[in-house]
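Not sure how to ask, but would you mind making up any protein sequence you like and the tokens describing how it folds?
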Amino acid sequence: MAVYTDITDDELAQLLADFDLGAAVAFKGIAEGVENSNFLLETDKGRFILTVYEKRVREEELPFFLDLMRWLAEHGYPCATPMSDRSGQALKRVRGKPCAIVSFLPGLSVRRPSVAHCREAGDINYGPRDQREAQPKTVGNGASRRLRQTPDDILDGDGQREIRRGERQITRHRRQKQPDTLPQTHADAQQHGSAD
């Protein structure tokens, strides 16, 4: 199970006290995911996902990505919307770690992403041009190289070829010295739900 940080009922109640999301009715860890602790949170006002960001995440980058998620949702992209507390803050802390609560997106997980799924995600034309300045890429091509080494049960040969094709396009784009026009994304090609 991908829950690395346990949260007590009292800690959850204390976190929710800052929001207008209602009282917790159900709270359980989500098995999918690889690097963050994710929880399905049901309150008397709706369903949400609580993500506790673990060690690999740079906390100073989280506001950018939470703002990007909000921007995408406001512009009609089916994206989980970060919930803000009463003071307007989406990034909170629990157990000494950064966390955020986002809206729950109904639907089924794509268990085996296909090349068509990857292309569909790559065809989205959004990003920082009218949102704000570009976020520096701190993960970079190294992440796609690690993804290329992912087990075959996640990406087949076509998927692996698409990753390499994408890397070549990024490299060509960087040679043209146009890094600010690269779109931003936070996406995983793995088996999990909408929480990570």
